[in-house]
Write a structure and sequence with these properties.
Length: 189
Amino acid sequence: MQAGFRLVAEVGFEGLRLRQVAEDVGIDHSTLHHHFATKQDLVAAIAAYTVSQFWFTAQEDGDPVVRLRSHFDALARLLREHPDLFTVTVELDLRARRDPTVRAAMVEHEAGWRQVLVRTLAEGLAGGTLNREIDPVATAELIIATVKGARLVPGRADVIFDQLFALILGCPLSDDRPPNEETSEKRTS
């Protein structure tokens, strides 16, 4: 699966070949077919593997503002440290348009992501810590669209997420950010 992921990051799904994956892993082609009978089975496994890389980015407990900030920070870090992950997500989004299996995996992933985002935003509104004019459902969609757009300019992700965070909080941009539970160091962009 990881060899397939690396190959998709390099050449896209159109260039994904089972023989090449088997060769990259150092196994016989027939052994790979034992685990993935078809290319479609490997594509589905790559989609599941890729989506699972994002599971740790959204906390479900604690202060909603800290959770949201931590989520943005984790996504920005992934964009910086693992750009191949976002290259593959672009490939998955494109493939999902014509592949029902990939579409189902992506719809499921985004549904879970939306649910966590909407809950976090609603809790922040209820607690009075977020811009009272935001709509949690629309703002969750804005976050997802912004993350997908930031994939195209990963070097600007920190600035993009900082501005989105400030809009959601309803405050001007500044260096005063709520603490991130993972790190308290300031970013340099």
